[in-house]
Design a protein that fits this description.
By secondary structure, the chain is mainly alpha-helical. The protein contains 7 helices and no strands. The radius of gyration is 13 Å and the shape is globular. The two termini are 24 Å apart.
Length: 113
C-alpha cells in the first residue's frame, strides 16, 4: 500500500486508474523495490513521459526508441492508454537486456539515475 500511495498522485495525473496504479505498485514491490525510492523513481518517469508527449521534447524520441515504436506511435498510445505505453516501455527495457544492451545505461542516458 505504501508503494501505491507513492504512485497515486503521478498516476492519477497521467490518467492511470486506481486499478492500474495498484497493479504497477504490486509489480514494483514484487521485484523488491522499496516504496520510497521505487515510488519516487517511477513517478518521475511517468511524469517525464507525460511532459515528453505533451511537448514533443527530445525525451519523446528516447521513450519511443526504448518502447520499439515511432514517436507518433508512442504519443498516440500514451494518449489512448498511458498504462499500455508504460508497459511497452518496460518491455522494451527488458528486451534491451535480452539483446545484450544495458537497460541501465539506456536509462542513465535518458537522465534516470
Amino acid at each position: 500500500m505504501n508503494m501505491a500511495t507513492r504512485l497515486a498522485a503521478a498516476g492519477s495525473q497521467v490518467g492511470l486508474s486506481q486499478a492500474q496504479i495498484l497493479g504497477f505498485a504490486t509489480a514494483l514491490s514484487s521485484v523488491g523495490l522499496e516504496a520510497q525510492a521505487g515510488g519516487t523513481a517511477f513517478s518521475k518517469a511517468v511524469i517525464q513521459m507525460q511532459v515528453a508527449v505533451e511537448t514533443g521534447n527530445a525525451s519523446l524520441k528516447d521513450f519511443a526508441r526504448v518502447a520499439g515504436v515511432t514517436t507518433e506511435e508512442f504519443k498516440a498510445l500514451w494518449q489512448s492508454d498511458p498504462a499500455g505505453a508504460i508497459e511497452k516501455f518496460i518491455v522494451g527495457l527488458a528486451q534491451m537486456d535480452e539483446q545484450g544492451v544495458s537497460s541501465i545505461v539506456a536509462l542513465q542516458e535518458m537522465g534516470f539515475t
